[in-house]
Amino acid sequence: MATARGDGSAPSSATSTAVPTPRQRDPPIFSAASSQDIEDWLTTYERVSTYNRWDDATKLANVVFYLEDLARTWFENHETEFVTWTGFRDRLRELFGKPILRKANATRTLSMRYQRPGESYPAYIEDVLALCNRSDPNMSEQDKITNITKGIAEEAFQYLLLKDPPSVAAVIDACRTLQDKRNTRLLQASSSSPSIFSAPDVDVLKSMIRELVREELFNMTLRSPEAANDTPPVHAESPSSRTIQTLIQEEVASANLSYICTSTFSFAVTSS
């Protein structure tokens, strides 16, 4: 039975629970290094601020913790001059923006951009589009398509030649379809064929190679007068073992070495 509270009110039947607060995100550090782009950093800072629910006053109060080196020194030297977030942002752009240099760097990078080994089509295309926007915000669809196709992987290039997509969106859809077909094909191939390098097969192969090496070394001793009366070991040959033995013979011959073998197949190697 619930007891009455001292103030005469009825006891609470429900326990209040704290509402979990989303974990705060941290924007990247800006140091004004030549490799950093101020517009990219500002865009990310604004996006993180929105997630963290920072208003303009909080943005300005927190920004010092995400500045380093030259950018931090500049902020501390002029901190009293920054009254609003907008004023600080505009001053930051004026000093570190360098729009002409930004455009030149993007144009140069775009001219050399190609799809890297292992890079997916979406990752490549989105990076090219970002460079296009930096190089020329008003770039036409056809120029964007040209920049995408000039560095894309050969199989995708041939596929796009057949499809002749009229827009960037069509290029993305075509490459997504091609990526899905590749993934499906690779998945089917890997599930339908056993692994060539399974552990038991490797052990068998090692044993075969050891036996073939011993036999080849013994055969070399038969070509010397000292081993004329020796008997070679018995070895059941197969087409695959003969192929491996041929390779071993070629490697031994190309090494230009002479072997002195004992009856137990231990040997010393000396340069001839």
TrEMBL record:
Pfam family, one: Retrotrans_gag
Coiled-coil stretches: none
TM region positions: none
Residue stretches making up the Retrotransposon gag domain: 63-153
Region named Disordered: 1-30
Biased composition (Low complexity): 9-22
Protein known as: Pol polyprotein
Species the sequence originates in: Ornithodoros erraticus (European soft tick)
Taxonomic classification: Eukaryota, Metazoa, Ecdysozoa, Arthropoda, Chelicerata
